[in-house]
Amino acid sequence: MRNAPADEPLTIGQLSQRTGASVRSIRHYDEHGLLASVRASNGYRMFPEKAVTQVKQIQRMIATGFTIDDIRGFPDCMLLIEGARSCDQITDVQRERLEAIDRQIADLEKRRARLVKTLLEGAVPPVD
Length: 128
Prior knowledge:
The chain is mainly alpha-helical. The chain folds into two domains: 1-85, Multidrug-efflux Transporter Regulator, Chain: A, Domain 2 (Orthogonal Bundle), CATH 1.10.1660.10; 86-128, no CATH class. 55% of the residues lie in helices and 5% in strands. It has a three-stranded antiparallel sheet with strand order 1-3-2.
């Protein structure tokens, strides 16, 4: 498969190759309005060059725990600048996500301690 020049639209396969995202993931992002595709005369989805950056950013945000719905609410600056640190508009959302992750970690640590105690004592300890 040839690579498209920078000004030519990319097929979903080319976009997948350039980003490492699966075709299925790219379709999902597109269907949820995170990417802008157009249909070629043959019915195939075609993506602008900027979609490479957008897909990489979406992958980074998902890897930090954000959902597709969260990302849809983010300003465009988060999707258009590869490696963007963050936009001031989402700092609060990021802090909230970090607090949620910290709560999950604390809960998992309690569950782990309870399971270790169960294994050592052979009985399920009472719930705290």
